[in-house]
Design brief:
- This protein is α+β, with helices and mostly antiparallel strands.
- The chain has helices spanning 10-13, 17-23, 112-119, 131-137, 197-205; strands spanning 28-33, 36-49, 76-81, 85-91, 99-110, 156-159, 169-172, 186-189.
- Strands 1, 2, 3, 4, 5, 6, 7 and 8 form an eight-stranded antiparallel β-sheet that branches.
- It is globular, with a radius of gyration of 16 Å.
- The structure holds a DNA duplex.
Length: 207
DNA sequence: GAGAAGATCTCCT
DNA sequence: GGAGATCTTCTCA
């Protein structure tokens, strides 16, 4: 048996948020639950940087909700919105810069049946093609806020993929926000069916 | 303490 | 394609 693989280290998350949002595509997201291990490939992200991004939760300063964004990189920031949905972010950059990358979609690779059950859907592409869907499939709630994804004993880790796969990255504008809509801070893997449908329609319109 | 907004999803037409 | 659901968080008085 080969030595156990370690999660991606904190130095990766300490980089510029836009670089992390782009480079984290294709990485393996691993979630440890009592029902087993759930794994998916990250296929869609958005960058939020509080210092110069009016749509970021941290733009107006530190609050009890967003305080983890002001902490060290590589920490989860989970918040509840629209009365129904949780969204998962990974904190980036230095502690004095409140920034994070929103994980918008993953391509399920392991524990698929468990994720389908969590979501009550039948098709693979319905499991995690959106921020709210993804957190439900992976059983992520506010209890999972402030977890260290670089710690091998954490309930959430992110790993390099076993096999490097070549893909094209598309950079475009974010969805679901009112302010700073023009910032091209959304990234996804071109042609992947697991990115959110809303976005696919948007891109077709803007060709 | 009250009112408003919100990084979404799903159902209905 | 459009609108409602649902509830946490923030702002303002």
């Amino acid at each position: 048996m080969a030595s156990k693989k370690l999660p991606i280290n904190r130095g990766f998350y300490a980089q510029d948020t836009l670089i992390v949002a782009k480079d984290i595509l294709g990485k393996m997201f691993v979630r440890y639950t009592p029902n087993g291990v759930l794994v998916g490939r990250i296929v869609e992200t958005e960058a939020y940087r509080g210092t110069d991004d009016p749509s970021s939760h941290s733009y107006r300063g530190k609050t009890s909700r967003n305080e983890v964004m002001f902490g060290k990189p590589g920490i989860t920031y989970v918040y509840f919105t629209y009365g129904n949905h949780h969204c998962l972010n990974i904190v980036t950059e230095k502690p004095e810069i409140p920034a994070a990358v929103l994980i918008r979609a993953i391509e399920p690779t392991k524990g698929i049946e468990t994720m389908k059950r969590n979501r009550d859907v039948e098709k693979n592409i319905d499991i995690s093609s959106g921020p709210g869907k993804l957190t439900k499939a992976l059983q992520i709630t506010r209890n999972d806020n402030n977890l260290d994804v670089t710690d091998p004993s954490s309930k959430i880790n992110i790993f390099e993929p076993d096999e490097e796969e070549k893909f094209q990255i598309v950079q475009t504008t974010r969805v679901g926000i009112r302010l700073a809509q023009e910032f091209p801070w959304r990234f996804y893997i071109k042609g992947n069916p697991h990115v959110s449908k809303k976005q696919a329609r948007f891109d077709l319109k803007n060709k």
